[in-house]
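User: Hi! I have a protein structure encoded as tokens and I'd like to know what sequence might fold into it. I'm fairly new to this, so please keep things simple.
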């Protein structure tokens, strides 16, 4: 929000300088980003009147002018501007004047004719970036007066960086309200009177989308002067607020936007057909906007239309086909309230951002429309004339925002702010911000005004008191913190320990968005239904993640495209899954690896990372908690993983914990990956569960190892063989180790040989050969009975 300090002081004029004003605004939460002079430095430029204009004898494009600058004698000034004419009042730079850019005016001759000064344009005075001719001043401008005094250029433009919740300060009126509250001064707004209708013309208005536009105010004004010019005072206020003059009708609507904060629009009445309809767009409709851009309207977009076609994108931009032109004589003025939710994100979806959408998205007072219409009408009648009709208003009261009172406890103020604020001062502060305050037991009941959409809770009111009381006035004190040792659970593994295990194995931690590309998520987790965002940052970040894989895989792709071919990434965070119509948030830890198993070195041959590398990483995580049996890896299909290089991860009690494996070749192809990528995802809660260490005595007697080779069906997993051995053997069996898998000559087709090492040991004595043979016999018998295994000869 950019505004002129002098304009603000027309509303409220505290006895403080510009620097103090800027500090007050910043400390009140309205950060001042820039304070700039409204004009560049120049001197010896006065209001002048052109008395006569004659052609230059030696130059077709030059004119020799007699100019009255308030001195005893007129000056001869040579000028080349096309709009110079007798009777014109313009700024004249006298001999010795210094203009922006370092230009100094001296006596000179132009093609042989003496020139004692220069007639100036806005550009030459630093008031505009470009100009088509001389700056034309009103006929009543006093000749000889310094132009800086006449235009009141001893002014600054102040630019605020407002947070989205302070849409009420996107106007001079809103800022004046804040400054008045800060300095305990009541603003003096201009008097806005109801204007009597001079004609009875009405235009029917229909609210088909009343929930999105519960109030619409309009008025017909006939017989305006299409040749009227925007007065200089209005042009200057717009210029100092960052807007250029576009003609009197548009300038007035822009003035109302800046002064009151109400966006308005003017239609050429002759171009409207039938009635005004506020409705939603239908499929196939299009609209040419004021900037010449033709857009295809999205279904559901809020429109202002007539009986034939769309006229404007409501709250964003008007249409070119119904715009006011230089020939317009009759206009229809619009002033409406649009629900912020109906406008939020719409402008951005069309690649637009306008002053109107900026305000409507943040919320405009729903009580302002009629006042803005009266103010705009009065200004238009003053500038372009015309005959106004009666105000046309359609309102759906049930769809207007409700002003809900908020209870404020007096004791809570001191607890939050750390300072006691007197009761009468609390009432003064809140009343000064146009809030309705009612005294109740222990505090107040406060009703926020229509322009404040951010006052919903008690802390919001306390913030207002803190702002106006002054953060500088809050006492500074050191917080008193009582340090207390917190118990540290031996059965809880910290995230720091988990991160350390993965970092030691070469991983880097990644942090990705919780919202992801729906296309990539559908590839990697097609079984889960995604939760769509109502107002996404972009189309490729429009759903909540149901797995951490989409973010990690995108990070892998990003780095591979930048020649980083060896990647070990992990991330911990929430995934968002719908279960029984409820959104469940689950903490998981995920990883993605690709490329070489280890960095280049001379001690080992290079090889690509494989399934067993990432499986070892998962086992390292699980073993952190001291679980003696760890997890089970079972064959189970996952649509995003390679069917022969993937597994489901189960706990010992049969709960599914996650998945591990290589990405499916079709998924890799769809993502444009040209090397294998392995991923895992594991429930974090299980990883963080630990066991209290328990002592087990060591046997003083020797262990005996027996190796056996059994032949089983190729489809039987080694885990099933391992589990069968553990069930069949006694407590003397201390370890089972698979050290070879063989398929080939001497083994029937569809069968495989597993070589296993069994270690047996007793705590009380040395085992005999017969006892060991008995254990082995029991194991082999169980394998044969359960799995159809035979002992390989």
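Assistant: Happy to help. Inverse folding works backwards from shape to sequence: for each of the 793 positions I chose a residue that suits the local structure. Here it is:
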């Amino acid at each position: 929000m950019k505004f002129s300090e002098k304009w603000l002081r027309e509303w409220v004029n505290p006895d403080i300088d510009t620097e103090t004003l800027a500090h007050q605004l910043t400390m009140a939460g309205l950060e001042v980003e820039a304070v700039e002079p409204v004009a560049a430095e120049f001197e010896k430029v006065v209001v002048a009147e052109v008395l006569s204009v004659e052609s230059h004898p030696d130059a077709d494009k030059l004119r020799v002018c007699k100019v009255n600058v308030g001195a005893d004698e007129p000056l001869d000034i040579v000028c080349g501007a096309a709009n110079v004419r007798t009777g014109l009042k313009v700024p004249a730079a006298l001999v010795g004047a210094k203009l922006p850019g370092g230009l100094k005016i001296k006596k000179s001759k132009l093609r042989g004719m003496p020139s004692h000064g220069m007639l100036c344009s806005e550009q030459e005075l630093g008031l505009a970036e470009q100009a088509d001719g001389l700056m034309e001043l009103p006929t009543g401008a006093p000749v000889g007066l310094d132009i800086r005094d006449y235009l009141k250029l001893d002014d600054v433009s102040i630019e605020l960086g407002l947070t989205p919740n302070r849409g009420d300060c996107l106007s001079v009126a809103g800022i004046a309200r804040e400054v008045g509250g800060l300095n305990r001064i009541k603003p003096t707004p201009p008097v806005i009177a109801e204007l009597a209708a001079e004609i009875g013309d009405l235009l029917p208005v229909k609210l088909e989308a009343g929930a999105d536009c519960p109030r619409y105010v309009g008025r017909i004004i006939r017989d305006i002067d299409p040749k009227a010019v925007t007065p200089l005072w209005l042009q200057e206020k717009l210029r100092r607020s960052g807007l250029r003059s576009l003609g009197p009708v548009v300038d007035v609507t822009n003035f109302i936007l800046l002064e009151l904060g109400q966006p308005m629009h003017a239609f050429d009445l002759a171009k409207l057909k039938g009635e005004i309809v506020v409705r939603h767009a239908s499929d196939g409709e299009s609209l040419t906007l004021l900037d010449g851009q033709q857009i295809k309207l999205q279904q559901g977009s809020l429109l202002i239309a007539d009986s034939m076609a769309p006229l404007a994108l409501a709250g964003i931009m008007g249409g070119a086909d119904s715009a006011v032109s230089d020939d317009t004589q009759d206009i229809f003025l619009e002033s409406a309230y649009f629900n912020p939710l109906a406008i939020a994100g719409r402008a951005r979806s069309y690649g637009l951002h306008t002053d109107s959408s900026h305000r409507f998205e943040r919320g405009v007072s729903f009580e302002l429309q009629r006042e803005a219409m009266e103010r705009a009408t009065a200004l238009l009648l003053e500038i372009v004339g015309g005959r106004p009709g009666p105000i046309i208003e359609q309102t759906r009261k049930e769809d207007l925002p409700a002003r809900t009172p908020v209870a404020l406890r007096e004791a809570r103020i001191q607890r939050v702010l750390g300072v006691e604020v007197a009761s009468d001062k609390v009432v003064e502060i809140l009343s000064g911000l146009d809030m309705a305050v009612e005294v109740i037991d222990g505090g107040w009941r406060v009703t926020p005004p229509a322009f404040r959409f951010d006052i919903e809770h008690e802390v919001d009111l306390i913030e207002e008191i803190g702002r106006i009381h002054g953060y500088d006035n809050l006492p500074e004190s050191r917080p008193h913190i009582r340090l207390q040792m917190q118990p540290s659970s031996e059965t809880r593994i910290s995230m720091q320990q988990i991160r350390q295990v993965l970092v030691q194995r070469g991983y880097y931690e990644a942090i990705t968005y919780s919202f992801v590309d729906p296309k990539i998520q559908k590839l990697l987790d097609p079984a889960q239904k995604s939760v769509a965002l109502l107002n996404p940052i972009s189309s490729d970040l429009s759903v909540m993640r149901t797995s951490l894989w989409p973010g990690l895989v995108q990070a892998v792709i990003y780095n591979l495209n930048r020649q980083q071919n060896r990647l070990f990434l992990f991330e911990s965070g929430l995934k968002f899954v719908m279960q029984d119509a409820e959104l469940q948030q689950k903490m998981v830890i995920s990883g993605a690896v690709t490329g070489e198993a280890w960095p280049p070195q001379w001690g080992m041959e290079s090889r690509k990372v494989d399934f067993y590398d990432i499986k070892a990483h998962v086992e390292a995580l699980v073993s952190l908690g001291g679980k003696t049996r760890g997890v089970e890896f079972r064959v189970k299909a996952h649509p995003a993983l390679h069917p022969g290089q993937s597994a489901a991860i189960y706990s010992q009690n049969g709960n599914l914990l996650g998945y591990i494996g290589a990405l499916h070749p079709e998924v890799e192809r769809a993502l444009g990956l040209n090397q294998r990528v392995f991923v895992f995802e594991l429930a974090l809660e299980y990883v963080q569960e630990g066991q209290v260490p328990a002592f087990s005595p060591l046997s003083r007697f020797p262990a005996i190892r027996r190796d056996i080779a059994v032949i089983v069906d190729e489809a039987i997993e080694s885990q099933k063989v391992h589990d069968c051995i553990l069930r069949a053997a006694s407590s003397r069996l201390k370890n089972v180790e698979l050290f070879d898998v063989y398929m080939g000559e001497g083994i029937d087709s569809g069968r495989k040989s597993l070589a296993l090492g069994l270690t047996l040991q007793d705590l009380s004595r040395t085992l005999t050969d017969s006892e060991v043979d008995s254990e082995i016999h029991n194991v082999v018998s169980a394998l044969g009975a359960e799995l159809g295994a035979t002992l390989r000869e």
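A useful reference point when you look it over: The chain has a mean pLDDT of 91. Feel free to ask if any position seems puzzling.
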